[in-house]
Amino acid sequence: MIRAMGDIPISLSATQVLSKIKQACDKRKEAFKNINVRLVAVSKTKPKSAIIEAYNCGLRYFGENYVSYTINSCSVNELSEKSHDPEVIEKCPDIKWHFIGRVQKKQINKLLATRNLSIWETVDSQVVADLANGSLERNFAGKKVSVMVQVNTSDEPSKSAVMQSQNKAGIEPENVNNLVEHIISKCPHLELVGLMTIGSINHSLGEGLNPDFERLEKCKQEVCRKFDFDADKFELSMGMSSDFETAILMGSSNVRVGSTIFGQREYKK
User: Fold this and answer.
1) 220, 231 Cβ separation under 8 angstroms
2) Which domain holds residue 62?
């Protein structure tokens, strides 16, 4: 049995997160009552044994930040390797992968080859959308991939260089409609299913409503109105370990929880 937070096993921490999600759903205002919430267990840097244990607890959606990376001159195929691992395939037949990080152009083909890729959450430009659509057309006949548009909802700098880089990822809110229209009209191999944001760490640790989440929900309203999407089905991916309950109260349908389930991560140097 793998321990997550201190002496808490993954099975217990996962159960606690699911319970908090249900409690938050019960407290939502009427406008959000029909929105289902998906838990994405962020398994980046974690071994397949932890993923298998979480899967056995009932979790089905797992998020990864890296397709592959190099550390100490060694190549690590994170999502690519995990999704094609024979033991994961055998023991987790219904697993669904979410890609929630930034990808280099040269890695797009490898990302799209992910087994059971459910949603690519971080499409943030027409260039990336076109490259993904072109790759699917050339290399993956008949395959269509669900994507979200990543929105930069906060201009506030972070104390962490890593988080600051992530916070700056995403298209500006005023340009969201243009990217949405481009994906709908020019990228037939991509299916737009929602919007995603990371938000600032300061707002996630604050009290009360999160202005980053308010901004993303406003973007959703504008997109649904302009492009006639069903607001109950068009997704918002927002909320992580520190703020997923607030995100649910503010309309999130997809929360990305990692350290609360698996424990602290070991980041690449």
Assistant:
1) yes
2) 10-262
